[in-house]
Amino acid sequence: MVGGTRREELEALKLEVNSFLTSVERYNSNNLPKFEKYVQLQVSENMYDLEANLAILKLYQFFPNLYKPEIVCWILLKSLTNLPNTDFVLCRCLLGAGQLDDLNIARIAYLANLLELCQFKRFWQEKAQDANLISQITGFDDAVRKFVCHVVNITYQSMDKTILKELLGGITDADLRSWIAKNGWKEEPNNMIYISNQDEHVKTKNISEKITFETVSVVM
Amino acid sequence: MAYRRDSYRKDSYTRADSYRDGRIYDDEEYGGYPGHADQVSNNRKYSDFGNKDDFYDPRGTSTQSYSFPDAVAKFIIHLYQSINNRDVSEIENLYEIRFPQLTRDYFKEEKWPQDITHLVDDPLFTTLYRELYFRHIYATMSNSLTFSDRCNSYSNYCELFNMILTSPEPIDLTLTNQWLWEIIDEFVYQFQSFSQFRRSPRLNAEESQYFKEHTYIWSVLSVLNVLYSLIEKSNINQQLRAYFNGENAETVAGDFGKSPLYKMLGYFSLIALLRVHSMLGDYHLAVKVLENIDLHKNTMYCNVPACQITTYYYVGFAYVMMRRYADAIRTYTNALLYIQRMRQMFQAKSYQNDQVNKQTDQMYTMLAICLVLHPQSIDESINSVLQDRKYADKISKMQQGDMKEFENCFTFACPKFLSPVPPAIDASPDPSQEPLQIQKSIFMEEVAQQIYLPTIRSFLKLYTTMPVSKLAAFMELDHNTLMECLLCFKHKMHNIVWSKGVSSLDGDFMAGSEVDFYIDKDMVHIADTKVGRRYGDYFIRHIHLMDELHRALKGLKF
Questions:
Q1: Which keywords are on file for this protein (chain A) (predicted)?
Q2: Site from B165, B195, B237, B282 to mutate, A interface, most A CB atoms within 10 angstroms
Q3: What ipTM score was computed for the predicted complex, to two decimals?
Q4: Residues 417-446 of B with CB under 8 A from A
Q5: Across all residues in chain B, what is the average pLDDT?
Q6: N or C: which terminal CB in chain B sees fewer CB atoms within 10 Å?
Q7: Would residue A175 count as lying in a domain?
Q8: Which range in A56-60, B48-52, B168-172, B427-431 is most confidently predicted, on average pLDDT?
């Protein structure tokens, strides 16, 4: 029951926030409490809204006295759940010099760097130390795993099961099976997993020029 | 790439005559003008008694004595009359040719006359004139630009925009699009100049105090307010949506939007927002405000080249920060090809040349950076410029991983970054550099994350298949580290690329690397892209040139 009303609250707030974003209201600092509540709901209800979050960071940029570090941490962590999109970079560009020195934010930036470098094993090890910071974000771990699967999907044709387990953060066999199913992969003998037929996508290309009628029609 | 002949033509008036005439504004040609002969005589020099105690001085004291050259007085009156008569071609002549000419002749180191009310007593014209007056100071006499000048210029803009925005009906004013663009462009430029000035160590205590008591002067919110109001007043977003959908924009324009003045001010305000947001580091919003403008088809809508080039420059830069390198490369090559085509137009207007040249240089530099991070083949005519020594040196250094070179190129080519607020009390010794340092460090971090990519790419180019262990040996990395690098390569080369739709933000994830690979168990399978020689562009370009030559020859009178 509680979950239901929170979801409704989220939907209603989303409409209101969207109306701010389409006008100068997005620069009105009086709207900050609503924006901040919206972030809170995004965190608890596993939902994500890039534009609203960027608008909050912008308001903090214009009104540094209203800056709230916890909200910024949440926004940055949520942006990581949208990898491989570069949302984290967009958010960082709106932070001021002093804010980047905040220990928590520096820590999040470090974890983000590990993810961008695809150093997934190290990421899971390091992340374990930040349980307080991250545990509030519902669905954070799964979002990162989704990103890992995306990178695996574009890189491998088949790979070793043990390696995959490591990349996904040392999950249980049961969980691994469900991720394999979710991505449409196939378990094969010899502890291998078949990802996809990369041969189709990654082929030697010979690009020769195609001159279309439209290009030539201009000069005819 | 289709070459648009139409972009050469103007959709409003033909300007061919004004250039061909080569009209010379001979002072003797104009006789005296009624009513003012007693106040102006030849060769008296202008002197300015500014009131230095009050920074905020909208009108200047009326006890000033002023005297200035005849030609200048005639110009001012002539300009006023042309605006009144809505004589667009004459306005263009006076604004684009005569005004710079007089500036060169009389005002290289002096200000234009500050008070012209004895010549023309019209509040709207006065604000327009004063806008030119301040613009000249900023451009030509920036060393003698005072705090009072900045404040007065701000109040002049407020007056001008107030008149335009609060009028119950569209005001009856006809100016050229070039002039309107330059008003908006200068407005944003002066805001940028003030934001940097406020963080400058040269700011003295008195000015600092004055500013604290009058925070609305050149504040980011007031600038944004003006731009948003112009956009809303003109219904420009609705008009653009209709235009690119092939519908009639008149139906959604509204009373104000139908007036070309409001429509173009609305359009230029969108570009100004692109610029302001980029300078504040908000790249997403910067590109989003243009979501109703199809950047592949808008040269007809906006016939001001400087505006078009500025648009390309900022959109390209935003794409780079968003790691959409393919889109950035496409935008920059479109921009540079556009500039190549428009070159001939700039020769006549020397005062625009500097800015266009600078932006061209910056775009080539950004393009060089993009091509190092995301190698791909581009248009031959642009590529040949990049092979010129100036850029080839930089490119080869960056390809070898010279981080300093990346930094230098970025610093040269990036926009002027701003902070919307004054520096903190405990700020670094030179807070004016802070915004730039922040953006630069974010970019450099991205470059650092990609540091292994060129090496991997060079090895991949040599083989079609290779065991992972062999590649690890070549790169002198252990197996695990190499796997991470390979994953990173795939991740970094898989970015959002625009393919269709009006908004430049649209796009899908696509593999962008010309050298691609996949891993099967322990083997790396590599695929390279061979690009065949392109000849279509070359022929079409020469057909166009021939065409132009043919038309020019036909037009010659013997």
A1: Cytoplasm, Initiation factor, Protein biosynthesis
A2: B282
A3: 0.90
A4: 419-421, 424, 427-428, 434, 437-439, 442, 445-446
A5: 82
A6: C
A7: no
A8: A56-60
